[in-house]
């Protein structure tokens, strides 16, 4: 009977060791996934604000109270290039969305403030040079 006890003890510790190793893989994988999620989340947030900024620039084009200059057009295309999405397809999607909003909204700037907030944007604002 004694050999059966030892066999059971060895079997028990072997199962514990296998469980421990498998849990290490699971927990290790979870850590990797968590880190990857945080990194990707930053990219998603950045992309959201890129698109919002692009929409706000196009609102200027359709709003009679604001000027849309060549600089705004250049900024729009630059933001499109900064995007991780397909540039031409993304720009077309944004233009289509803006046209829909323009057709259905009277005050574009109010719409932008209410629906396209730039608060918390990771995009850096350019500082205007000061003449000192």
Number of domains: 1
Number of strands: 0
Low-confidence stretches: none
Q: In percent terms, what proportion of residues is strand?
A: under 5%
Structural class: mainly alpha
Sheet with the most strands, sense and barrel status: none
Shape summary: rod-shaped
**Radius of gyration over all CA atoms, rounded:** 27 Å
Q: What is the mean pLDDT?
A: 80
Contiguous helical run count? 4
- Percent helix, as a range, is over 70%
Determine the N-to-C terminus distance.
95 Å
Molecular structure report:
76% of the residues lie in helices and 0% in strands. The chain has one domain (2-115). The model has no long low-confidence stretch (mean pLDDT 80). With 132 residues, it is mainly α.
Write the layout of secondary structure elements.
Blueprint: H1 2-62, H2 70-82, H3 87-104, H4 108-115
Helix pairs in contact: 1-2, 1-3
